[in-house]
Specification:
Elements lengths: L6 H8 L4 H25 L4 H23 L3 H6 L2 H22 L8 H35 L8 H24 L10 H10 L1 H6 L4 H16 L12
Amino acid sequence: MSTHVVGRTERGAHVGFGFSTHWTWLAIGFLLAFGLPFVLTDLLSLNRDVFYGVYAVSVFALVFGWAQSTGYDLAAAVRRRWLLAAGLGVACGALLAVMVVRTETSTMRPDGLTLAGALLWRGVLYGATDGLLLSAFPILLVFAACAGKRFKRRRAGKVLVGAIALAASLAMTAVYHAGYSDFRSGKMRKPLTGDLVWSVPTLITLNPIGAPIAHIGLHTSAVLHSYKTTTFLPPHR
């Protein structure tokens, strides 16, 4: 698990901003994660593709707002061990694609420009947004909040921070999927299991690109293999 901390990230967490600021942003993230699908899909029944657009804009605004507020250096984080992050993202994305093929029934899909548009919008955009909100944001936030703490200098402390970061990611995944009516059931097990895979690249490298790459693999495979999936491309109205 990477413990390298970018300079401005370290200072942003402790000088003038304080430890609690990060947790406040995490709480905002939980509210957004549940509120968007609940209000826009459960209550308003917004078209799926329109929802994905609103969702993406909202999540990117959340992450950039957090970075600006706390002084977190996103550009430096993206450069951190980026080759390893990308490689792990591709590997985990391939594993998630296998999970899709093995657990979902193959369905008919469109072709041509319609399929290309679905791959870009439902696969790449929605996948990257999910990876950013469900894993990259909570994991990086937890490490930033704990940066410079004495207990983190010991190996056990580093493992503890990693465990808290993974727990935050699992919680974000659960809260987000609870916003969709059909996931308030045994179906919740699938995204929680998937989170243990798609979180790995960012958890190991502390680079925000890893989890979104892995998640893109999940959603693009769902578009190609199971276009009418009842699991991987919510809402399922």
